[in-house]
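Q: My labmate handed me this sequence with no annotations at all. I'd like to see what the chain might look like in three dimensions before we decide whether it's worth expressing. Could you predict it?
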Amino acid sequence: MRRSGLRVPLGWAFGVLVLLIARPTPLSLALGLPLALLGEVIRLWASAHIEKTRTLATGGPYAHSRNPLYVGSVLMALGFCIATGSPWVSLATLAYFLFFYPAVIREESGFLREKFGDEYDAWAREVPAFLPRLTPGGPRASRFDLARIGQNREWRTAAALPLAGLVLFGRFLLPL
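A: Here is what I predict for the chain of 176 residues:
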């Protein structure tokens, strides 16, 4: 099985483990949860632009980064690392992202290049793979469509965010 097939199920299992070893404080929650929320806002924005495998998303956040869903995920993870108050969580999260994300980004890049050819290459010349550019670049052809958020099942991540925040707050109130 490729890494991309393991990324999501292991991510959920990893998330449960993180919540168990978390040691949040009021300050860590106050600093981390807004950053996690920003990450989810970016993911929602990206999800409203993408029509997976049908068209090449180049508008909205895809004019700043070719992988805004992953940018959002990294910000969410960073926010939760801060919120947990645990350096062990941060170290484990870094290892998880370094193991999965570069390989998955390369894999998806190859798929998009094969599927969209010159259109992908033109976009890739203008828009960085990960770290966002400040001004939009590329063709900016895709448009925001709220219905795509549901079609792309981003509601699952959006629903998990407040739940994880509540669990972290509960871990603060009732440390094990």
